[in-house]
Specification:
single chain, alpha+beta, 6-stranded antiparallel barrel, 6-stranded antiparallel β-barrel
């Protein structure tokens, strides 16, 4: 049994790759044209950077002197070496930031400084991540319940799950400062369970999140979830990335049925970090404080409706891609290839075609029964579920290059995808 993390209410709990980014980390404004920073703001940022760097170096130097006075043994050599390397690293980072300061917003500079503090902190990893991420998390209250949300940019835009909003027209958002503000829906995509809202007002307690590319995830790495389960604000839980590429039915499958164009498979991050109703829309972060996913659903059994150690988060790359589409006003659609397939049982990776629909994009591209699709746009396809998720994340009209094995030969086919909606009219 599987359930979306529906907004929590006191009476009931509702049960319920894609384009990628090359950068290891990114903020949402990287996807959109940024504002031009005035010289005055640039000077303020440069001054702030040098001030922080200076304080950081002074603290390190003080720590070394204190250690030398107390111990006066051979450990002072290693302490001096450590401090020296840290000072060099800070100087290099400051120079890089100053050289690129005209391209950074003030919130981005603040986030980089926070990240520098995080990476050099002796605080426990989860504590440091919680401190870095919590400033980017809000509570989203709809007409049916509540969930969480992640700050995207300085313009007051927040990303959350579509199932948190449902059909609500009135939204309220609780900021980290404790202020409650109104919000409006920019767009909602139930096929990928992603929505973007815009706050009527913001304050300096809310900082845009820093996103890490979900392409770089590894099974076993630290995963920290922040959200508001059961109306418990700013709850932090930790675990690991249990698996990647788990294809799960979207929110659209729940409300429109599995045999509808609204139903799509979404490649998810599986985690054992405890997430529960109310966590929906909140961040799943790595040890660097970068958002790697958006907590979305949990797997349950029997009458249980709370976490049993199997949760799912939409990868950050997918979240940002869909959010950009919604902000840009692109139509919501699902691409269609026109095959039936299965995962091979002979140990080979890929999607084995067992049927090709007449006049479909696959048929027009020359694909045949028995072809084994192994790559999409140079990315490996492990199984049929992965192919489905990749195609259904795309939009009608997109072109993809499929690599497939026919007999002993590897071939390519360029396919222009059709619309799944047209197949259900």
């Amino acid at each position: 049994m599987e359930e979306d993390l529906e907004p929590f209410t006191e009476d009931e709990t509702n049960e319920s790759e894609p384009h990628s980014f090359e950068q290891n980390e990114q903020t949402f404004p990287d996807l959109l044209p940024g504002p031009v920073i005035s010289d005055q703001k640039s000077m303020r940022k440069i001054g702030l950077l040098f001030l922080v760097a200076g304080l950081f170096i002074v603290l390190l130097t003080g720590a070394v002197i204190f250690s030398w006075v107390i111990s006066r043994d051979d450990s002072e050599v290693s302490s001096v070496n450590l401090a020296s390397s840290q000072i060099v690293a800070v100087q290099e980072l400051m120079e890089a930031l100053v050289n690129n300061s005209s391209e950074l917003t003030e919130s981005e500079v603040a986030a980089i400084i926070a990240e520098m503090t995080l990476s050099n902190s002796e605080v426990e990893p989860v504590v440091a991540v919680a401190d870095a991420v919590s400033r980017s998390v809000v509570i989203v209250r709809s007409e049916t319940g509540q969930g969480s949300g992640i700050a995207l940019d300085d313009e007051g835009r927040v990303v959350t799950n579509a199932h948190v909003l449902e059909d609500s027209e009135t939204l309220q958002v609780l900021l980290p400062s404790g202020r409650m503000v109104e919000a409006r829906v920019i767009g909602s995509d139930i096929r990928r369970d992603v929505a973007v809202i815009e706050l009527a007002d913001v304050d300096n307690s809310l900082t845009p999140a820093r996103f890490g590319s979900s392409q770089n995830l590894r099974v076993g790495q630290l995963a920290v979830a922040v959200g508001s389960p059961f109306e418990l604000n700013q709850t932090v839980t930790a675990g690991i990335v249990s698996a990647i590429g788990r294809v799960e039915p979207s929110y659209g499958c729940e409300i429109a049925g599995t045999m509808s164009a609204e139903c799509a498979g979404v490649a998810m991050i599986q985690t054992d970090a405890p997430i529960n109703p109310g966590n929906s829309g909140g961040p799943l972060a790595d040890r660097n404080g970068h958002v790697i996913g958006m907590n979305t659903s949990i797997r349950t059994e029997g009458f249980l409706s709370a976490n049993v150690g199997v949760g799912f988060a939409i990868p950050s790359d997918t979240v940002l891609l869909v959010a950009q589409r919604l902000i840009s006003g692109e139509p919501i659609g699902t691409a269609f290839l026109g095959i039936l397939g299965e995962t091979p049982t002979d140990g080979r990776a890929g999607a084995l075609i067992i049927e090709v629909q007449e006049s479909s994009p696959a048929h027009k591209a020359g694909l045949e029964v028995g072809d084994l699709i192994v790559r999409v746009d140079r990315r490996p396809i492990l199984n049929m579920q992965a192919l489905r998720a990749d195609i259904q994340l795309r939009l009608p009209g997109d072109e993809v290059t499929l690599e497939y094995i026919r007999g002993e030969k590897i071939s390519e086919a360029v396919v222009r995808l059709a619309s799944l909606d047209d197949e259900y009219q």
